[in-house]
Amino acid sequence: MLTGSLVALVTPMSEHGSLDFTALRQLVDWHADQQSDALVIVGTTGESPSVDFAEHCELIRAAVEYSAGRLAIIAGTGANSTSEAIELTRCAHAAGAVAGLSVAPYYNKPGQEGLYRHFRAIAEAVDLPMILYNVPGRTVSDIQNDTALRLAQVDNIIGIKDATGNLQRNTDLLLRAPTDFACYTGDDATALPFLLMGGHGVISVTANVAPLSMHNLCAAAFAGDLPRARDINRSLFALHTDLFVEANPIPVKWALAYMGKIGNGIRLPLTELSPAHHDRLIQALQQAGILPSTSTV
Fold first, then answer.
1. Alpha helix stretches (DSSP H) within the chain
2. Which of 142, 150, 181, 221 is most buried, by the most CB atoms less than 10 A from its CB?
3. Boundaries of domain holding 17
4. 296 falls within a domain
């Protein structure tokens, strides 16, 4: 079971929107050096809705190659078409990803039985461990805890990323989940209490810009070092919230470009971060110790 800080990695692009594999390799190297616990490639933060099928598969293959065993690579493999999700999962399996992250189908609004059959069909079609991904704020579809626990009984379905940020709901899931079913949060702002309640890790946006700090936050929580965990979380909390001043991944890609880690590229329909938010993001980076306090736009 993977635990700790699993980075919801951005997809670097040129200012014209083409994929930047040189920057991707550099990000993978940086996260390996910074002790990130795993990388999640081509998820929401990786602009999965904006890359085509061939690009999606190539990004997974490249991440596995660049990691060279230093970091586990989890591949975003979800789709609102069950057949497409199966094909993406096959790509991830062939590339050598350790698991697929499969989002609840979006737009077509399946019910709980439809969600169950969708994920079961993927798990039965491809021999790759699957992590369910529940983010109803984006998909409208909501994998209820009872459905997640029903799916936990299906071979190959090994865990869930819950991005609701609802700690009451998270607690119920953690109390009832099998011990070998991994529970991750997708909400950085509530990651610390989630971990202290027994969660296994965070699939983190913040870790894109503060990888070592997020790794250390998880390690402190697992070790029961609450004062250290609180201190780290306090320094990161502005990032946890301000990286969502506009739709993810707009702010985090801007922050990484400002840090010199990637170029300025993002694909329509997303656009560059509004200048009105630049100072706010810089201050959050300064508070986290990522930038010196003298930095300006």
1. 21-33, 53-67, 82-95, 112-125, 136-139, 145-151, 167-176, 191-196, 211-223, 226-242, 250-258, 278-287
2. 221
3. 4-223
4. no
CA-nearest of 159, 246, 233, 160 to 191 is 233
Phi, psi of 166 (to 5 degrees): -95, 105
User: Rounded to an integer, what distance in angstroms lies between the CA atom of residue 23 and that of residue 31?
Assistant: 12
Overall number of domains in the chain = 1
Catalytic residues: 133, 161
In a domain, 282, yes or no: no
The tokens describing 283, both together, are 């201050």
The answer as to whether 55 is a domain residue is yes
How far are the Cα atoms of 11, 204, 209, 213 from residue 191, in angstroms, in the given order? 23, 9, 16, 13
User: Does 252 fall in a domain?
Assistant: no
Digit-by-digit pLDDT tens for the chain (297 residues) are 899 999 999 999 998 899 999 999 999 999 999 999 999 999 999 999 999 999 999 999 999 999 999 999 999 999 999 999 999 999 999 999 999 999 999 999 999 999 999 999 999 999 999 999 999 999 999 999 999 999 999 999 999 999 999 999 999 999 999 999 999 999 999 999 999 999 999 999 999 999 999 999 999 999 999 999 999 999 999 999 999 999 999 999 999 999 999 999 999 999 999 999 999 999 999 999 999 986 444
